[in-house]
Amino acid sequence: MTKTDERQEYEVVVVGGGPAGLQTALYTTRLGHDTALVDRGGGRAAMMLDTHNVIGITEDQSGNEFLATARQQLEDYGTDIFRDFVTEAEQLDDGRFRLVANDGEFIADRVVLGVGFNDKRPDPPLPRTGKGLHYCLHCDAYMFVDESVYVMGHSTSAAYVAMIMLNFTDEVDILLRGEEPEWSDETDELVRAHPVDIVEAEISGMNKRDDGWLESFEFEDGTVREYKGGFAMYGSEYNTTLFDHLGVDVDDDGTVPVDDHGRTNVEGVFAVGDVTPGHNQIPVAMGKGAKAGIAIHMDLREFPKGLEEIRADGAVAPEEVPGISPALLDKAKQFNESHADD
């Protein structure tokens, strides 16, 4: 982990150390572009006790272990990684970008923002995230096959997640926690036509098993209901401050619209991962990061030169190649030599 205490200049600066940002930095580094990744730590992936739905990664690897392995890979390839928090961003007169962090600042030809969002947490009492409190249906529904499950919330999304969970179990409750449902009359008719219990009373207490997993909730009406776990559906808070600083468009739902390779409406600024529209899944985020990395390489690579440039400046001289910085060239040679016998 590199420490920054002065201005650093890179071809690419990636802000956000989740799966999307890490994958982008892996591609830009291995494709020969000086890359920094600025990561404040934490994030949704770091909260995972087990990693699901990532082929080649087994269930016994936590989110923090998954991310630590990825960071080590990047450093081995030559990415500079900074533990810092970017608070300001602007585009300079020369078209480059200036990012101000708590401990320093960065100048970049291309900026990639993989800053994600935060799940809105319901009020306590709550079980520990990953041990009875979950946010990702597609990640965690499998663990609740034939188990008793709750869906906490009063939105349309909560109603639909409850009905979707009937594909996995026959014991599904919606916990309104004293709130009135916000879904439409049509949704109300639909959800009540499915074998889902709607519990109106607020939670007054919680019991845990010896291993820390949720055992049951106690309710203000005196009832106790047992659950293996469930999902909180209270929406998301997208981290869009840096996009606002750079004049990037943000949709009404908080997501950042991008093209198929992560380009925003501001040339040179890319968005990847959960802050963009689509499924919030690690493999999806990694795919978005890879595509952004390839697009950036196509923008920044030195060769081939264009025919007009060749005609104006002459043929490429032998001393002008390879089109990779000396620092990355040395790092790549070291890496390849160390893995020559693998």
From TrEMBL:
InterPro entries: FAD/NAD-bd_sf, FAD/NAD-binding_dom, Ferredoxin-NADP_redctase_2. It holds the Pfam family Pyr_redox_2. Residues 330-342 have a biased composition (Basic and acidic residues). The keyword Glycosyltransferase does not apply. Residues 318-342 are annotated as: Disordered. It comes from the Archaea. Keywords: Flavoprotein, Oxidoreductase. GO terms for molecular function: oxidoreductase activity. Residues 10-289 form the FAD/NAD(P)-binding domain. PANTHER family: THIOREDOXIN REDUCTASE 1-RELATED-RELATED. This is Thioredoxin-disulfide reductase. The lineage of its organism: Archaea, Methanobacteriati, Methanobacteriota, Stenosarchaea group, Halobacteria.
